[in-house]
Amino acid sequence: MLVERHADRVVATLNRPEVRNAIDQATIDALHALCAELEAEPRILILTGAGGVFASGADIAQLRERRAADALAGINANCFVRIHELPMPVIAAIDGYALGGGAELAYAADLRIGTPALKMGNPETGLGIIAAAGASWRLREIVGEARAAELLLTGRLVGADEALAIGLVTAVHEASGLMDAAHALADRIAANDRAATIAMKRALAAPRAAHPQVDLELQAELFESPEKERRMTAFLEKRSRR
Q1: What is the pLDDT of residue 178?
Q2: What is the dihedral of CA 15, 20, 21, 26, to 10 degrees?
């Protein structure tokens, strides 16, 4: 995995071209190490893949050798949960295939954008297993229960136009402009108050029963923030000059 660090964001590129960026144990270990870094120093994370592929899935050669104890350990599932729970937003920039575990990694992001070459799906049942690293609950939250059931039970792949139509991605860009678009999203997020962004992500992740109390508690913290005072004062001063 290639990691490019900036003051307000990190770009992580899956880079195993010989197996179309299949996710193996070394990839998971690298993602855990990156999560530890971003938990200690919160920044936006942009996930992408090299060579016109996001990730073709979990590494089948390794997956074939795993047994019940490995499944119960949640090797990929726990890593993807950790990615989704990072303090700052995660953006998946998807070109080409995002299949199986690769799709589930993309589902763990807060925002997903793609290219016309995008192909996403979970063909796991055709390999004698299920999509157990987040698809069974995250895909339902993203595209709705009926659509998720159809995709997961058939293993059908979704192209860029359909992915956009069902909300699986929020935008489609030419491959040459994909990373520019990802950075533009990151720029919009980074221009906002970091504490407010972290709070907004926490509110979005809270279960329905926790609302509105969780929103009020997070807002109470922000109402005491000097940055809230500074930003609102700047807004009022700018408006008064118009």
Answers
A1: 98
A2: -100
